[in-house]
């Protein structure tokens, strides 16, 4: 790829990113009045009034993060090129401990079927289930929670003493780098307030889990662009679950679909 082509790619990424920032800035301004109207009461008291339960106090810690770019890793299978690899983890049993992350890391080190296994450093507890364990890539202690950078492993528990891993699904990104300087992200508490104001938390519902992670916002010329995002697992009074996302820079609820910026002919 020559220098002019690289220059065009980054120009497209820059323009697309700024359009995204302008949109989220306008959305954020639209919520300012609502925040001021509700400033007299705490989020905890409002949740209690609406009979919304949660497990622990919400953190007010301000995290840092980046706009990141990354390239999809393509796996080879016979004569095919795949962006998602599906395979069998192979035989073997692993004793169960109180640390699922450690269990999986030990298994991966002893199994060569997962490509770049050492890059999956984060166990996504909130997204995992007894039947499915999820590991993810990360950047500076913040995981990716995105279908482009995850390892999902099927688990068969023959009994409570060991795991037997079955099929796995793997996606991976490479050449991860910041597009801008590090910025401050909103706290967990601010993200919950934003969801409450936007009427995204159901009455008599439950806030089950939260996670700060990177999610993809668009793709330009083969490069994915990611942003810090608060993921919040919610459950309504009928036990129906869903996940809401909050832009951790703009403090706005995600509503737009991910877009691809195509290269012109």
Automatic annotation (TrEMBL):
The chain crosses the membrane at residues 6-25. Keywords: Membrane, Transmembrane, Transmembrane helix. GO terms for cellular component: membrane. It holds the Pfam family YycI. InterPro entries: YycI-like. Residues 36-249 form the Regulatory protein YycH-like domain. This is Regulatory protein YycH-like domain-containing protein. It comes from Vagococcus coleopterorum. The lineage of its organism: Bacteria, Bacillati, Bacillota, Bacilli, Lactobacillales.
